[in-house]
């Protein structure tokens, strides 16, 4: 919403400075977004008179002017405007002046060998309008040498406020003045009552044919004016329209635009002679179209409310008039329309057809219904003032809706909700100033909101009005009382786990990434996603169409982007949500990490201490185990399965499970086919962990870790090497060894894996050292022999392996 | 010069000349060994007359002792020399650079770090951290939050929707974390104090808007909390977050469907340089939106608005991170460019706490 300071002062009597007004606007909720003063950029331009205009010696279209700038000697100016002539008074820009419409600072130029010491400006060059057919042509009495901004009255700041959608009442300058006055910044000027004597027949009737949906157009006020002479509107009005960025068209059109901004009351004017038959407010029909005032053709349908005559659709009600029945300089008889429309219908049609007009802006927020006929009167009066003519009686089809909103308002609500201490009288005064009716003398009063405030429905709305006007800065800051003397643990197990996993992985040299929750459909499908219910109906791009079923696609793509930038060795992880369905329980929190190139735990790339090898499945396994440890799961308590998802290398991946059904993590090298499908280069290893799959920690009665008992006896170590088939998992052998004597064996460590000479084809040798911890007595050779026999037997039973000789 | 003197001079010279411990050992054997020159002399004592022995005994014993001492002394010197030579040969160029420790090369994303900073502050004020799903219903994202029918936010150009189901339900990606307010109020008894960090989504993309971003919502519900508390809470929070002694806030009346009265909050700052300085200057910058929870929202959660009241606010986590730590472009947050992550990321062991200061 834009207006000028002088325009505001049409309605507001105030001594306040511009700064005070701007500050107050913002503090009452009408946030000032921009203030510009044309005088600031046009202040250097002065009125000048062309003394001579001669043909340029070297260019047909150019003239060489001698210009009197009021500053002594005439100056020579080369000019291409067709209207440049001796005697013309216009606006002169001298070298050094900045011309906003051209975005250049002038200097002395030479145009086709003739020097030019400045320029005569067009309106477009001064950003006053789009006019560029010629230079500005001022009346004979324009004083040479005077600053143009003073002569033209352009020293008038233009204020733009950002209007929140609940405040249609301030979509007009009058409403803004009313708000400022209520806040104590001056007095609202009472509008003059318009009085019109009917002297012509209406001769046109309007029907509303919307069935039972009267709310789509509850009232249609109109008046015929005969014998108008349409032409340019008065300069003062044109100036205001230009100042707020509108283009003056002709008096009748300019009046509707003016009242749209002055009173927040959009109107429309039909050329009555171009209307055939009655005007009917009805729904559009499939196939109907309208050429709008903007020259574009719009297709309407049964959801749009239109104004039609015998020829068809003439106007999109409350949004835009039609070109065919619009007013031009030949218009002599007009129908002025002031109607009410349904905000929802207006918004829907406007959005569907992509039309943003000042009328739509107001009607979809809510125009004051009570002002309908007053607005019609004011428009008629201006039309007669500017264009002459005889008005008919005002007519009204339908009914102006009455508001019966009354709010029972305890004054104490202001203290309860806003914490403001105000007297009843103060509260009542503020509300009254804003146009609210306040009746009653008790602690609870009845308050009726004014017709122009469709946003006010309840007590809290009234509290806001009071607080807005008194000033939020008057509310004293209050400390929220502490609930507990010492702040409590507030994070859930899942939140704590994520925090720990995050820090554990970063401490392993990985950088935390945050990647998009939505990924390309093709990527989603590779990782088990792409279900119909996880596809966005309106993705912002095809690369962001499907909710991710895994964190890996985003991380893998990120790794490739980094590689493309010259950083091939990256270790990235993410903590975030993945989606296996659209149900609340289908969203899971995961932690995933990748390593690319040589980005292993010990570092990447070459180094004098030893170069890093390409990343390996065990790098990913180590990350997975670190993440699991961080969330409180001991990796050695988990079982390793080899059924990781298909995007992992089938022979170099694993699943860490707590029981066969509860998967906590996957790790492995990324399947070469997956890399190819993603158009990504490896080597790449990855892991994924389900944060919430691990059981909740049991609540313990004490935090004690129990007594520490150091064994008195020395542990004993013995080495064994077994020859087993190659497909026997190491874990199986170690588990068997560990279980051979649970009392004595405290640790089993695999220290060598060997294949080759001395070991049969298809087999390998696994060497373990076993630690025995006696607790009661020192082990004898016989004791040790007995345990060894148990170990050999257990391993043989579990794996078929034999002790290597 | 007597024989003994000559011998001692020879031995002394031999000891001095021994360049290694092995050579010195040879001298020892040649002098004090069983058949050594001094030992041989000692053997002659037995054949001497008592008078001779009385003279030669002490002389020879003295010689023996002196030789032994000289050898021991020489041995010390040679040992020291040998050690010095070994150490010299073992010298390493300690300027050789090491690989950086993994804990120094990994980083925490600013969004995570700032979220933890925020949680640390609000936990101290008694707020719990609540969460909810990204895929939401229209009811929880809009209707229960008092968004009217036909509100622009409910349109496809603002909000990401999923395809309509057979039963007519159309799920969406939450546009704010406010649905979690509703979920919490519907399942927990007041008094409530929660903050809700999380991912949110809107159809928007430019330097300061991304289709996905992070929001933190706050909610207080009890029987006494009013706008004064809202002001106090946000002031204390911003002071703690930006780690400055003072912040000046400006509360402007505004409009949100789910709060009434509603306000936007500007913070005083200095924007003259490349970075925004909070707590200085005389410029205002909008930082968050807030207000008293709308009576309709309370009603939608089964709470009587004449009994229960409270405030809510919402702010961008990414935006707070940008303001505090000086990132210029929001889009870079989600690009996973390791150069950016290493520049703006945080050390893994720098866990934000009020005790040690939120940041270094």
Describe the structure.
The complex is a heterodimer of chains A (805) and B (360). With 805 residues, chain A is α+β, with helices and mostly antiparallel strands. Chain A folds into six domains: 2-37 and 157-188, Phenylalanyl-tRNA Synthetase, Chain B, domain 1, CATH 3.30.56; 40-151, Nucleic acid-binding proteins (OB fold (Dihydrolipoamide Acetyltransferase, E2P)); 206-398, Phenylalanyl-trna Synthetase, Chain B, domain 3 (Phenylalanyl-tRNA Synthetase, Chain B, domain 3); 409-474, Phenylalanyl-tRNA Synthetase, Chain B, domain 1 (2-Layer Sandwich); 493-690, Bira Bifunctional Protein, Domain 2 (BirA Bifunctional Protein, domain 2, 2-Layer Sandwich), CATH 3.30.930; 716-803, Alpha-Beta Plaits. In chain A, the strands form twelve sheets. Chain A has a seven-stranded mixed β-sheet with strand order 30-33-34-38-37-36-35, sandwiched between helices. In chain A, helix 6 crosses helix 7 and helix 14 packs across helix 17 (617-630). The longest helix of chain A is centred in the last third of the chain and has 19 residues, at 781-799. Chain A is elongated, with a radius of gyration of 42 Å. The model of chain A has no long low-confidence stretch (mean pLDDT 93). With 360 residues, chain B is an alpha+beta fold. Chain B has two domains: 3-89; 109-344, Bira Bifunctional Protein, Domain 2 (BirA Bifunctional Protein, domain 2, 2-Layer Sandwich), CATH 3.30.930.10. Chain B is built from twelve helices and ten strands. In chain B, strands 1, 4, 5, 6, 7, 8, 9 and 10 form an eight-stranded mixed β-sheet that branches. Chain B is rod-shaped and about 135 Å long. The mean pLDDT of chain B is 92.
């Amino acid at each position: 919403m834009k207006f000028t300071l002088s325009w505001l002062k049409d309605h507001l009597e105030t001594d306040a400075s511009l700064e005070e007004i701007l500050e107050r606007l913002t503090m009452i909720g009408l946030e000032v977004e921009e203030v510009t003063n044309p005088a600031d950029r046009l202040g250097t331009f002065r009125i000048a008179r062309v003394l001579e205009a001669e043909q340029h010696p070297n260019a047909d279209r150019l003239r060489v002017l001698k210009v009197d700038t009021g500053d002594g000697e005439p100056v020579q100016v080369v000019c291409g405007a067709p209207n440049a002539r001796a005697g013309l008074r216009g606006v002169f820009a001298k070298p050094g002046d900045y011309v906003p419409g051209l975005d250049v600072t002038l200097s002395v130029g030479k145009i086709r060998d003739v020097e030019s010491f400045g320029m005569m400006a067009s309106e477009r060059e001064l950003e006053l309008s789009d006019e560029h057919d010629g230079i500005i042509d001022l009346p004979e009495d324009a004083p040479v040498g005077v600053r143009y901004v003073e002569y033209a009255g352009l020293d008038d700041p233009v204020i733009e406020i950002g209007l929140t959608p609940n405040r249609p009442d301030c979509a007009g300058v009058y409403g803004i003045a009313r708000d400022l006055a209520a806040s104590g910044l001056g007095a609202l000027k009472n509008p003059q009552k318009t009085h019109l004597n009917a002297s012509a027949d209406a001769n046109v009737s309007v029907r509303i044919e919307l069935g039972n949906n009267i709310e789509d157009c509850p009232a249609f006020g109109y008046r015929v004016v005969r014998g108008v002479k349409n032409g340019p509107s008065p300069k003062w009005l044109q100036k205001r329209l230009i100042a707020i960025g509108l283009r003056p068209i002709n008096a009748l059109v300019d009046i509707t635009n003016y009242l749209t901004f002055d009173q927040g009351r959009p109107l429309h004017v039909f050329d009555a002679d171009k209307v055939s038959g009655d005007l009917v407010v009805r729904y559009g029909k499939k196939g109907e179209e309208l050429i709008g005032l903007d020259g574009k053709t719009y297709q309407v349908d049964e959801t749009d409310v239109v104004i039609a005559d015998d020829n068809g659709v003439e106007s999109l009600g409350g949004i835009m008039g039609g070109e065919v029945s619009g007013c031009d300089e030949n218009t002599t008889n007009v129908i002025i329309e002031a109607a009410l429309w349904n905000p929802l219908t207006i918004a829907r049609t406007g959005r569907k057809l992509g039309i943003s007009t000042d009328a739509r802006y107001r009607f979809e927020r809510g125009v004051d219904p009570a002002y309908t006929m007053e607005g019609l009167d004011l428009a008629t009066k201006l039309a007669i003032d500017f264009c002459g003519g005889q008005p008919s009686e005002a007519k009204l089809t339908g009914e102006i809706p009455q508001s019966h909103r009354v709010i029972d308002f305890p004054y104490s609500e202001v203290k309860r909700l806003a914490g403001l201490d105000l007297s009843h009288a103060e509260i009542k005064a503020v509300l009254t100033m804003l146009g609210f009716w306040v009746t009653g003398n008790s602690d609870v009063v009845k308050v009726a909101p004014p017709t122009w405030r469709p946003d006010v429905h309840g007590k809290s709305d009234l509290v806001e009005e009071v607080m807005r006007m008194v000033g939020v800065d008057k509310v004293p800051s209050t400390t929220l009382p502490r609930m507990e003397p010492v702040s409590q643990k507030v994070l859930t197990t899942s939140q704590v786990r994520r925090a720990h996993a995050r820090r554990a992985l970063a401490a392993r040299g990985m950088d935390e990434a945050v990647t998009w929750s939505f990924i390309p459909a093709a990527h989603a499908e590779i990782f088990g996603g792409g279900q119909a219910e996880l596809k966005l109906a309106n993705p912002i791009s095809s690369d962001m169409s499907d909710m991710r079923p895994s964190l890996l696609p985003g991380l893998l793509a990120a790794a490739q982007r980094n590689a493309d930038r010259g950083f091939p060795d990256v270790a990235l992880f993410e903590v975030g949500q993945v989606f296996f369905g659209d149900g609340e329980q289908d969203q899971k929190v995961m932690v995933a990490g990748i390593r690319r190139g040589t980005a292993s735990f010990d570092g990447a790339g070459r180094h004098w201490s030893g170069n890093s090898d390409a990343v390996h499945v065990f790098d990913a396994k180590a990350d997975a185990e670190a993440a699991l440890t961080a969330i409180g799961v001991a990796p050695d308590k988990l079982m390793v399965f080899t059924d990781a998802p298909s995007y992992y290398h089938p022979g170099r991946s694993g699943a860490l499970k707590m029981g066969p059904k509860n998967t906590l993590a996957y790790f492995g090298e990324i399947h070469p086919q997956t890399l190819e499908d993603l158009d990504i280069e490896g080597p790449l290893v990855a892991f994924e962990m389900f944060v919430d799959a691990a059981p909740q920690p049991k609540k313990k009665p004490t935090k004690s870790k129990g007594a520490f008992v150091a064994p008195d006896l020395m542990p004993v170590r013995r080495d064994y090497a077994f020859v087993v088939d190659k497909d026997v998992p190491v874990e199986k052998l170690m588990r068997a060894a560990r279980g051979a004597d649970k009392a004595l064996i405290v640790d089993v460590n695999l220290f060598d894996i060997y294949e080759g000479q001395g070991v049969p084809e298809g087999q390998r040798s696994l060497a373990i050292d076993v630690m025995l911890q006696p607790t009661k007595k020192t082990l004898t050779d016989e004791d040790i022999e007995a345990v060894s026999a148990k170990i050999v037997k257990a391993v043989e039973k579990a794996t078929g392996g034999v002790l290597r000789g | 010069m007597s024989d003994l003197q000559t011998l001692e001079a020879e031995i002394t010279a031999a000891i001095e000349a021994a360049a290694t411990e092995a050579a010195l050992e040879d001298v020892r054997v040649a002098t004090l060994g069983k058949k050594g020159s001094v030992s041989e002399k000692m053997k002659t004592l037995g054949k001497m007359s008592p008078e001779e022995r009385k003279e030669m005994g002490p002389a020879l014993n003295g010689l023996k002792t002196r030789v032994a001492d000289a050898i021991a002394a020489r041995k010390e010197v040679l040992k020291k020399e040998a050690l010095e030579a070994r150490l010299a040969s073992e010298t390493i160029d300690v300027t050789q650079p090491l690989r950086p420790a993994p804990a120094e090369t990994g980083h925490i994303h600013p969004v995570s770090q700032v979220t933890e900073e925020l949680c640390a502050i609000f936990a101290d004020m008694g707020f719990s951290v609540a969460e909810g799903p990204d895929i939401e219903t229209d009811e929880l994202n809009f209707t229960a939050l008092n968004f009217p029918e036909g509100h622009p936010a409910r349109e496809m150009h603002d909000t990401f929707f999923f395809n309509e189901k057979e039963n007519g339900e159309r799920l969406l990606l939450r546009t704010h974390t406010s649905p979690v307010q509703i979920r919490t109020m519907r399942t927990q008894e007041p008094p409530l104090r929660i903050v809700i960090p999380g991912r949110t989504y809107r159809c928007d993309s430019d330097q300061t808007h991304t289709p996905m971003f992070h929001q933190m919502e706050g909610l207080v519900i009890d029987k006494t909390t009013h706008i004064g508390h809202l002001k106090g809470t946000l002031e204390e929070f911003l002071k703690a977050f930006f780690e400055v002694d003072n912040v000046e806030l400006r509360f402007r009346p505004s409009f949100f469907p789910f709060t009434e009265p509603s306000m936007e909050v500007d913070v005083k700052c200095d924007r003259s340089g490349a970075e925004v300085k909070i707590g200085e200057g005389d410029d205002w910058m909008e930082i968050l939106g807030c207000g008293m929870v709308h009576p309709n929202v309370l009603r939608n959660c089964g709470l009587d608005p004449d009994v229960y009241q409270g405030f809510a606010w919402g702010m961008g986590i990414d935006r707070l991170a940008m303001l505090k730590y000086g990132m210029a472009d929001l889009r870079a947050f989600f690009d996973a460019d390791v150069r950016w992550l290493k520049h703006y990321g945080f050390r893994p062991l720098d866990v934000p706490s009020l005790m040690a200061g939120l940041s270094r």
